[in-house]
Amino acid sequence: MIKKLFSYLGIFSISFLSLLPLTLLYIFAYGLYILIYYVIGYRKKVVRQNLVNALPEKTPSELKVIEQRFYRYLADLIFEVVKMKSISEAQIRKRFIFRNKEQVEAYLKNGQSVLICAAHYGNWEWGTLGIGLNFKAYHYPIYKPLNNPFFDHWFKKVRSRFGNRLIAMRQTLRALQESRDQVSIFSFGNDQAPSWNESHYWTTFLHQPASIQLGIEKIARKTNQPIFYFKVNRIKRGYYTVDCVPLCLSPAETAEFEITEMHTRVLEEMIRKEPAYWLWSHKRWKHKPKLG
């Protein structure tokens, strides 16, 4: 009962904040940055270790700048996510612009479903809303449910605005089967570490051994649906573009793990170019491969 009460109070507070203009929310975001970086030090140890291991070519002073820029952006991102509850269609179209989307649209117009690979880079949450608005197809974002069922239900409704149909990770195959007669888009965030039991492929990612999720590759090779990588670029505060880049248009012809290597290298390149906008607070390398 207490958990439910606090959950609803939290949901009410977020919903109220969402009604405020982004200009005001960004002022709150600066205060949050001071709190989580200088006062609390939220996951600072994890972020620092990740940066040192992933970007060994950077000097300590360069890593410090990246670290601070990451926390500044994380605070902005939190309030941009808060704004999702009330942000208008017009605002999403203005602030999240899709470039080079003609090839994706051509497949959809021809009755061909596509797969989208993305990452927790930039504002992936606005990206989910933007896909639902910009492409004429059933959009199924694959997501990991939150531990709190009350927040999970509320957040799922927020993410489902503009026609999105969220699918829990473990329901992906079922959703694919049920949507086989539809022109659909299934979108995957492929940069989180799989569980130890599901760590079946290891590669080097940002100078470290990393297990990579194989879901999108398995589905693509089985269905031969073309894969596009959606590369998010932060232009300025609250404004993004996303490049719709063909990753693999004939998945059935690829070798095992070839697609996984493709999207891993694309993400690696994005992070090296603009490292501050990736989710460094995530324990991406918590699993280690067995020796021998």
Automatic annotation (TrEMBL):
Keywords: Acyltransferase, Transferase. The keyword Acyltransferase applies. It comes from the Bacteria. It is an enzyme of class 2 (transferase). Its EC number is 2.3.1.241. This is KDO2-lipid IV(A) lauroyltransferase. It comes from Pedobacter africanus.
